[in-house]
Amino acid sequence: MARLADYFVVVGYDLDKRGGSEGQGHILQRFPEKDWEDNPFPQGIELFCQPNGWQLVPERERPSFFVSVLTDINSERHYCACFTFWEGLDNPQLQKAEASEVDEDEVPGLVQPAQVFAPKSLVLVSRLDHTEVFRNCLGLIYTVHVDSLSVPLETVIGNLLTCVIPVAGGSQRTITLGAGDRQVIQTPINDSLPVSGSSVAHLFRQLGIVNVLYLFCAALTEHKILFLSSSYQRLTDACRALLAIMFPLKYSFTYVPILPGKLLEVLSTPTPFIIGVNSFFRSETQELVGSMTLDVIIADLDGGTVTIPECVHISLLPDPLLQQTQTALSMVLDPELEIADHAFPPSSTQPSTLKIQDKEIRAVFLWLFGQLFHGYRWCLHIIRIHPEPVIRFHKAAFLGQRALTEDDFLMKVLDGMAFAGFISERGPPYRPTDLFDDLIANQVERIRQEECSPHKVMNHIKELAEQLFKNENPYPVVAMHKVQRPAESPGHNDPKNLAIFPPLDDVTVQLFIDHAAAKLKTAPPMVRAELNGMVPSGPPLGDIVDRHGHVLANSARRLEVVRNCITYIFDNKMLEAKKLMPAVLRALKGRAARVCLTQELNQHVLQNRAVLDDQQFDYIVRMMNCTLQDCSHMDEHGIAAILLPLVTAFCRKLGAGITQFAYSCVQEHMVWTNMQFWEAMFYSDVQNHIRALYLEADGGEQSIASHGQQESGPAAGGQELLGALELASEQSRLWPTLSKEQQSERVQKEESTVFSQAIHYANRMSYLLLPLDTSKNRLLNRSGIGDVESVSNSYVTNSIAGSMAESYDTESGFEDAESSDVANSVVRFINRFVDKVCNESGVTNEHLKALHTMIPDIVQMHIETLDAVHRESKRLPPIQKPKLLRPILLAGEELVMDGMRVHLISDGREEATGALGGPALLPAEGAIFLTTYRLIFKGTPNDPLVGEQVVTRSFPIASLTKEKRISVSLSMDQFIQEGLQLRSCTFQLLKIAFDEEVASDLAEVFRKHMHKLRYPQHVQGTFAFTVGQSGKTLVEHKTKDKNQSIKTLSKNLVKSAKRTIGRQYVTRKKYSPPTWENRSSLQSELDEDEISVSEELDQGSLTLSSTIRSSDRQTMSNVVERACCRDYQRLGLGTLSNSLTRSKNEPFRISTVNRMYTVCRSYPGLLIVPQSIPDSTIQRISRCYRQNRFPVVCWRNSRTKAVLLRSAGLHAKGVVGFFKSPNAPSAGPSQADSTSLEQEKYMQAIISSMPSYCEPSGRNTLGGFTSTHMSTSDSSDKLRQPKIGALMKQVMGGKEDVPGTFSRGALGQRARVISLSQPRVSGKARNPPGGKWGSIRGSGRLSAYNPEVGNRLSSKESPQPNGGPSEALFLRQQRAYLYIIGDKTQLKGGKQDSFQQWEVVPIEVCDVRQVKNSFKKLIKACVPSSATSEPSMTFHRCLEESEWMCLLHRVLQVSVLVVELLDTGSSVMVSLEDGWDVTTQVVSLVQLLSDPYYRTFDGFRLLVEKEWLSFGHRFSHRGAQTLASQSSGFTPVFLQFLDCVHQIHLQFPMEFEFSQYYLKFLAYHYVSNRFRTFLLDSDYERIELGVLYEEKGERKNPQVCKSVWDYIDRLNKKTPIFFNYMFSPEDEEVLRPYSFISNLKVWDFYTEETLSEGPSYDWELVQRGRQERLAEEVPDKPDTTTPKSQRHIVWPCYDSRSRVVPDAITKLLQDLQSLEAELGLPPEKWKDTWDKIKANQRAEAKLENRPSFNSSLLMSSNLSHQRRSQGVYLPESGVGSSINLAMDRETSTTSTPVAGRPSTSTLYSQFQSTESENRSFEGILFKKGALLKPWKPRWFVLDKTKHQLRYYETRQDKECKGVIELAEVESVIPGTPTMGAPKNIEEKAFFDLKTTKRVYNFCAQDSPNAQLWMDSIQSCLSDA
């Protein structure tokens, strides 16, 4: 029972304290005067009566009523019902004015009313929330006063204060206040359910479904919520409604439904709140909220809006639930929505009445909480039962079993205060139950089945709503209310009528109260039956989750694998276990397998101990680590919890009395440092022990697996008698019946149980927190035990723990210096834990102190045992790690650091990881070696299926482009390991993780050495120079000896290099040499170097001795012998007679102006210049060009005599001068003008060298290129630009007005982006004499080639093939003599005069930076560092983004344009950038395409030596080969050129003497620094270092090849790997490859790798490796008789395919070699053999007089043109020679492939046929069978092509009976008849065939026949 009203208060306006604008209220009277003992009087009521402030008003307002809620210090809520009315009083302002003179500040003119009205409030304070009853009671008191009824007010108030009603129980009570009134009060049946009236329905009406759901989630996740409304009662209702829908959670933060204006500062509190404020204060609240961090959610009830600030993120309900809740709510609030579209809607579907609707909405939320919290009771831990239950909730287990660990909303709710209150209120197992408990216990199953059908859900909700409604209104409403209201008389508002509310007689009221109190005392006490009962737990969680399928379903097969593996381990079948291990580790990703593992391991524990041997121990630990590594730090699946007892059970003996337990190897997991995990574990164990304490069963019950009960739910609980909660409930029921002694005994038992568990856990925690090596504080650093407070979910402060820990630690007496930091942090952590759990579970203070004293001792003891274990474990022989394999080194290559054990981790390339099928070769374990030349990994795969293979990955140290530290966690080991990721520009990536045996400082030493070797101080530090010179360089693992190979460079070298270096970098500070103006500043520096640079250089002023070191002083003949010179003579560009005189009639001469490298440092010594230009002019001209690289001739077309020139771009000042019209009058002969004139002369000299210039063909410029949309009447000075523009358009094929230009090719759209404005080589001559097009494998970007450009350039017209207009409009058919390909950016602003004989083609070149960035992206695409599943990161996407193909496309395109121009008789000068990157690429490609000589071995070498080496491509700088060029980064200009050559090679496979392998070889070695060929930046530097001419004299060390060319020559003599068998060139062939991106292929050099032997480009290493492998394999086969499988599995990334499956020709040449070796013949060179075969074939073809394509396709040089251009396009097969097809062609003299056959694969079909073409000779022979078998006649066929003798049963038979390989035949000799031979055949008809395996006896029909057979076989043998 409770009082209906505790206090009655009258509050009025305080006239005395009236200050400023705001008045104040004060309490006039209160009853009772004295506070109730159980309920003190709430403070500050006067503020809440007038929340807007106390003000006087000019007009009387109507009485108002609202209820405020005040919360007292014990968080009890008091409901203050305020009834306010207004009373008139004389205006105090007027009185004041009369009293004194008018104040100056009073505004005259404002008429003050004579009477004003002051508010007065009647307030009723109660702890019950009966709004209507309060309204009626206060209204009645007012009515009695106003209508002056006969009842004294004291009586009414006295009755009100003495009225007592029950709190709950569903009774009906009628009350009267003695004024003729009567009210019925209905109490709710169950007071735990909130009473809401219809407030929830109103809230939804005001704000709408979504908004209320936002508020609901915000309140649950503890955000700040502010309601605004102009009605107080609505604010109260809205707040009440929000709390009602939160049931069963209770809101425990600030709750003020009506906040007075004076207290608005409360809004700036940092804690969450629900507050209501009158809209009157809207602006003030906005200011306040704005000044805060804007984290308040504002709900405007009148406007129906909810405003959520940007910084607030509200976690919403998890997904299916949110949707279902919204649907259910809309069905309640708007039932018409569902049938709005029905054709025949039902007559009426009105929503329920507001009161019913209110309950339906609440039912939806009740249903929602049923969904969210079902099964929560299975996650409760009861840790004390007596004196009262202490319950904890296991959050992680709950989330894990509901599979909602990721859900933000639920996490926040479970961590919130409301849920903590929910657990402490509803956790106890023995208490009254309510609707929610029933829902959780009995209706979860129903909710789960119905959740997908909204109508069933609705039915359920209606049932729940009914119960909620019945709870509030247990009886049908009886109309028994009778309450007077004030009479509405006409003069009601007349102030005269209204008396002031009288002061009441407090004595009378007090008498009433005392009288009632006395009556209560004498009345018998009301005994309300206790309805406590056991709270049912509902269905467990386990099976729910499985139905949702959230748990990773592990197939039974996987669990079987786990079980088998564990069985094998314990049965000591280690090999079996090893094979299963990878599968087990994969399976352990799934939860079921992890649980299975723990169950299996549990079975092998006897008496808490399981001793294993080393290997078993290792495997078990591995599995445990794998299991734990996928557990999150919260351990939501309880796996770590089940493993905890196991890690202290499994152990191994290390030595006498020393045991190592598994826990020392599984510490590296976050879960062990999570305080919440330990708390949950502790509580779970305590619960089990307390349960065992009360179960009067046998002791066996106690050994229940610590977590089994909780985790496995009812499965475990069902078999046992009682669960812990049921047991606790039973005990709580019995508690009152026990005697005091029994009670205290039980309390004590429980307390000591908890205490003993605390000691146990202190031990356990020290086991898992102290690392094995206590000197390393590894664990604590990583996981931050320090900031554990933030992790723990307790609300207990941790200060006590800290202080106690420190005090006890000093007492313990242990002071161990090394480990103190580890020990202290662990002690602090355990202390904090102990404080928390002991305080929560009521351990006595004495016990707590005892614990704090014990903990440091426990930790210290454990540290001591660990030290012993650590010492011993170090002595253990390491677990059989694979032995480190030594790499094979080159001659002169030396180890800098010996092998360090590492793991090679798989990167983004999938082949090696087994992702594309096949075994996983990576990860592999082995060692990394650093040598002076390479970085080598050699090891064996971790996967036992391929454990016997060897994996090698290496790359030259000079090709390292990026090194990055990484940390790797290997799946099998618990440690996170330090690693390195090393990327090389040979397209290799080493991702290594150092083994734990490698000390971290050693890894650092390794990095330093690597850097030192990668970037030597000077180029002389590179491997090509140091090879074979250094002393002992090996870095021992013990001593940190620095690498000495660099120190041991001979001192004198360094000395002599110092000057060199000084000079070398003088002109190179910013890599653009100074213009001539600034040269003088350099003068002094150069003078020191004895090089006088005079303005006009005298030719004789310099002798060689001043530039070339004396050691290399040689005559000019050396220069003459250089490659360029030989080539110039071949091209007829000038000869050098000994006297250096030249014949005058040649147009060009070889100039020696640069022989001292004074004109241009980066040019060769001898240059080709026009005959008529003197050297002095050259020196002047050179200044106009960047780096002084003036135009020189480098090639001449033998047919058209057009020349190709190369130069750098012009200096900026030179450009304008160059384009100045020569006819313009100049003010005076300034120097600029003179050079510009000299340049003119130079150009003119080149033009006049061309024979076509002398022809009378009139003006020959391209000046007429004008575009149609420029009017031809443009003034002549404008004519130049459109001319260039039109040429651009022509060359680009991008004419705006031609439709369909971009239409062809899939990449057409993208073409616009890439078509940088540079000449698109749109068209070429279709088939000019001797021209040839690449294979047409796809129309490319932009339009395909327009064949008319060639015709155009040769003055013909042709319509455009792609539908554009004819070209006649676009150009006048005239051609310039000289085209200058220039950089667009440089040619700005120059106007060209129309009378000049040359034409400038501006193009955009790719910048060096572009190449560098593109290459970086290309490498990342081809060799990604990690596998990715993102669609944006696929190989082809990355390849496209790298734009590498676009760059190739540009270079090829310009080159083809130049080829075209040269071929049509115009000369071309390529003048781009500094003349050493793109210029070199274009010039080299042009020569390669135009001149077949450069497509041979000698020619290509010459081309590279001439254009790349002599003309100064900066190999060292672009390759970042030294420390100085490190910053510039790696720029693969030469690689780009090789890639272009590769593209051409693919399109014209028959035009190159060298194979694709040759290009790859060069691509690898130009960055490898193994040879000196590609070092340094120019001939000048090479001479300075003495590298240039050493190759002849020095042959002291024959193993060490200094030049890559010598090496290739040597290798080429031994083996045909560099040779292209398809080589059959046509004379004077000009190639025109397609350059569209669709025609380009990714070079397999970028993507292929051979893990079995590493890169194959260091040939001797590969050969030696193969020999070693063969040597290993031989001893394994002593028994040769048993047949051995010839099958060999070839893995694409492991084996070298071309070696394992060589093409036919290579195979035959190999067989030939081995035959020669066997027969002891002197080996013949393969090239001689090859040439012989070719000669034979040609001869045969002529003899047989057949059409040419019958003989070998490849040999014939007179194939029809069409046939050749179809091209046999065959893919490259890696190392070894190319074409698989070739030999079939070569050796089949009689085969007749059909011309123009579509696919090459059909060429193999000839082997399957039995047609006569394959039968060189056939007939019947008798053959003697094997032992004791008769002679039989067989049809024999001698097949020259396949080199076989086959035999069949009969001639018609298609099935071959047997084959004798002629390769195995040793001899053919006449034989003798043996037993059983056919009769009557002469003796000479017998002959024997001897093979390596056996002797065959044959018999022909007669002797001539036998002779024929023998001859045929013999000729076959000799042919081979």
Summarize the structure.
The protein has 64 helices and 44 strands. The chain is α+β, with helices and mostly antiparallel strands. The termini are far apart.
Folded structure, characterized:
The chain is an alpha+beta fold and 1920 residues long. The strands form 12 sheets. Strands 25-24-23-22-28-27-26 form a 7-stranded antiparallel sheet, with helices on one face. A hairpin with a 7-residue loop joins strand 8 (172-175) and strand 9 (183-186). Helix 29 (740-769) runs antiparallel to helix 32 (820-840) and helix 31 (799-811) packs across helix 33 (845-875).
- Report the C-alpha radius of gyration, rounded: 50 Å
The helix content, as a percent range, equals 25-40%
Which oligomerization state do the chains in this entry correspond to? single chain
**Mean model confidence by pLDDT:** 74
For the largest beta-sheet, the strand count, sense and barrel status come to: 7 strands, antiparallel
Distance separating the two termini: 119 Å
Structural class: alpha+beta
Helical stretch count?
64
Runs in which pLDDT lies below 50 for 5 or more consecutive residues are: 97-109, 489-493, 543-553, 697-721, 778-819, 1038-1116, 1137-1142, 1219-1231, 1256-1373, 1591-1596, 1676-1681, 1747-1813
Percent of residues in beta strands: 5-15%
Biggest sheet, spatial arrangement of strands: 25-24-23-22-28-27-26
